[in-house]
Each structure stands twice: as structure tokens, then as C-alpha cells.
Design brief:
alpha+beta
Length: 253
């Protein structure tokens, strides 16, 4: 082979070689982007869980000072909430007496100084048993009332996950994030997020303002398992945990 032919063979890549290189680069890029997106979401979830814990501690501190937990910030007009109260970040109503029963809304981030919104920009939800949020009649060691129940799937009794059992009862308050999908929540700017699909039964349970809240393993969008898609992040304050903290602080006999 003469020198001219050698130079000709060494000049550039063939179309096949270029195609192989592009495929390899595409695979590497898609893998990198996928891993990066997963890491970002995991970081957001971790940040939100940590802030939920900080909100819980701030609620304890509020109870130490005021003898009761704060009322939620009104999320909608009605049940004693007027338009000027909605979304102002303050414990409502300002008199410090919540409506009777389980009262739900947003975390009163202005009142406690933390908890305006989660890592996805959605306001944290907060529900409290009113007997523990009445500053005019602070709760006592013997205060007892119908309280919030945290549920989870009873996979032993019912492997389908359709049946729930109590994970915790005697719960005075619950704080949670609507998670990445934000469904049923309110944005930091006060705009309603998308509604919860009717198939997402467990997320609907967390948004119906009753005595029951759900906590379980996250399931992906479009999940066909019992309860549907679920990514709420939930923590709570036990009635006895709250009383124990108050005793430690010298606020209860």
C-alpha cells in the first residue's frame, strides 16, 4: 500500500463509526440526566422531611409559650375563615380558638416562623384536634377527646392493601407535605394545584378534613396498586408526646 492510500484510510471516521459514537454518547447522557433528576428529587424529599421535623419542634415551642398548639392558617373561606385570613400564614382565627373538632388548613408559618412551603413550592398542610388548640382553655394532663388517627395498609390481613389499620391513634396534630405531585395542595403563591384523581384514594383521605390520615410507601404516578399514586410526606404529634414535652418544660403538673 502506498503512502497516498495510507493517508486516505486514516482521514476521519466512517458513518458507521460516527453512529456508534453518537449512540454511546446518547446512552451516557441519558443515564447522567436520569441519575441527576433522581438525586434532585431525593434531595428535595430529604429537605422536606427535615423541615417537617423542624415545624414539629416549632409547634412544641408554641405550645410551651401559649399552653396550646396554634390553629391552622385558613386555606379556604368558610367555617369561621374570612377572605382576609386565607393564606396570610397566621394562626386563624386570631382569638386563638379553633372550630370544634379536627381543624385543617396550612401550617401557620408566620406565627411559628417556619414552614411556608415544601421543596416543591407547595404549602404544608396542618390539622389539629381543637381541644389542643384552644388558648383560652389550655389543655391539661387529663384532656381527652376524639383524636386524629394515622392509618397504613394492613398487608398482613389483606395483601391487596385495600384494608387499612391504625398506625397511630391519640394524635393531637398532623403535618404533611403533598409531595412532588402537589395534588390537592396550594402553591406558595396561593394558587390551587391540580386536583387529586379519584383513583388516588389514600391522598384523597389526607385531603378530606376528617379524623383519618394516611401514611405509606410512595407509589409512582399512574400506580395501579390499591390506594393509587401516593407521595405525601406525613409526620404527627401524639397526644401523649405533646403532654410529655409540656411536663418536661414545666407547663403541666
Amino acid at each position: 500500500m502506498n503512502i497516498r492510500n495510507k493517508l486516505h484510510l486514516q482521514n476521519g471516521f466512517t458513518l458507521i463509526e460516527l453512529a456508534v459514537v453518537l449512540v454511546i454518547v446518547g446512552i451516557l447522557l441519558s443515564s447522567f440526566i436520569g441519575n441527576l433528576a433522581t438525586r434532585i428529587e431525593n434531595t428535595r424529599k430529604s429537605e422536606t422531611i427535615e423541615e417537617l421535623k423542624e415545624i414539629k419542634q416549632a409547634l412544641f415551642a408554641y405550645a410551651f409559650v401559649n399552653g396550646a398548639l396554634p390553629c391552622p392558617d385558613c386555606a379556604v373561606v368558610g367555617a369561621g375563615c374570612i377572605a382576609s385570613m386565607v393564606g396570610d400564614g397566621k394562626s386563624d382565627p386570631p382569638a386563638g380558638v379553633c372550630s370544634v373538632g379536627i381543624v385543617s388548613g396550612s401550617v401557620p408559618w408566620v406565627t411559628i416562623g417556619i414552614g411556608r412551603s415544601d421543596a416543591w413550592g407547595t404549602r404544608y398542610r396542618y390539622a389539629v384536634q381543637s381541644d389542643y388548640a384552644d388558648e383560652t382553655i389550655p389543655f391539661k394532663i387529663d384532656t381527652a377527646s376524639p383524636t386524629i388517627t394515622i392509618q397504613e395498609p394492613d398487608l398482613v390481613a389483606d395483601p391487596t392493601g385495600l384494608t387499612a389499620h391504625a398506625l397511630a391513634d391519640n394524635v393531637a396534630a398532623v403535618i404533611y407535605s403533598h409531595g412532588k405531585n402537589g395534588q390537592g395542595g396550594i402553591s406558595e403563591a396561593g394558587v390551587a394545584r391540580g386536583s387529586i384523581p379519584p383513583t388516588n384514594l389514600d391522598e384523597l383521605e389526607n385531603n378530606d378534613n376528617d379524623y383519618y390520615y394516611y401514611m405509606r410507601t410512595e407509589s409512582a404516578p399512574g400506580a395501579t396498586i390499591a390506594g393509587g399514586e401516593f407521595d405525601d410526606l406525613v409526620i404527627w404529634i401524639s397526644e401523649y408526646e405533646l403532654k410529655a414535652k409540656m411536663i418536661e418544660a414545666g407547663k403541666l403538673p
